[in-house]
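Run log, item B.
One chain of 372 residues. Sequence copied directly from the ordering sheet:
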Amino acid sequence: MRTGGVVNVRVLMKIGIPKEIKDKENRVACTPGGVRMFVQQGHQVVVQTGAGAGSGFSDAAYAEAGARLLPTAGDVFGEAGLILKVKEPQAAEVPLICKGQVLFTYLHLAAEPALAKALMARGAVAFAYETVRVGRRLPLLEPMSEIAGRMSVIVGSYFLAKGQGGKGVLLGGVPGVLPGRVLVLGGGTAGVNAGRMAMGLGADVTILEVDLERMRFLDIALHSGAHTLYSNEQNLLDALAEVDLLIGAVLVPGAPAPKLIRRQMLRRMKTGSVFVDIAIDQGGCAESSRPTTHSSPVFLEEDVLHYCVTNMPGAYARTATQALTNVTTPYALKLANLGWEAACDQMPDLREGLNVVGGKVVHPTVAQALGL
């Protein structure tokens, strides 16, 4: 924060960690170990009772780390200047946000125009994990992309089972039977992890990518165990006719995912094929995609089973929480130690994460996506 033109180098902050309320979202924004780091630097931390239970972290562990337990989300939002979350504020949480309160979480506002307007109206200072950027890297999105990429093959393989509505293909095949075919759209963090997992199961893997340098990297990183194919419409059309599991792993930081799969293209796929759309947080990469939940994860469109869960890593909450805290805590400590303005001055990558402030959407790509 600034006072009389002087940047304070030390601002004691009260940090709030509410319990996530999105459907079956078992992650929590900070582990007890992360809480201990805040307390050691002189900050106060308030944690909602039961916030860590889904990830295997007890209230007692948070109390031992120095946090104070509060019974409701309203209590946490009412006391804290900095709110750490995992998922975007849900409808019941938006009214709890105070003017000037700093929110640090995943937002995906390009796909959530109503939430963007609500944060503007509440006067929040909202940072989105997914737009914090270092060069071409998105360091706060990477661990969740790694989990979602690996998980996409697990859930895709599960729903390929005949009893789950799939075509009854085992991705790894068996001696005398060809393995299943997996097509991954995008060779970024999620895509390469999906490719690695599918290769591990013994599937025939192809990754579509437009960046030739990235394809060379994939060829080396995957030890030529996966095919790379230049991503254009003709190659995609040809591949869809043979694929068993299609994984959408495309990303344009801060912007809606490009609709690479049109509805008529799905009709080229065989009945009972499975499509896992990792890009659903940003609106999905198919015209037929719509958000689903862990409680009701799939739907059928054009005889293709769609899995479009918007918080996939929540299924592996303990791993995901630990991975998330590893990367978010250093940034959250900067916000707490310096205040958001000075932290942005010192860390240009954190400034890239600023989405909403002063009643405006200030991230150019997000603003363009929302038409603001």
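Observations after the first pass:
- Residues 142-310 form a domain with the Rossmann fold fold (CATH 3.40.50.720).
- The chain has a mean pLDDT of 94.
Flagged for discussion on Thursday.
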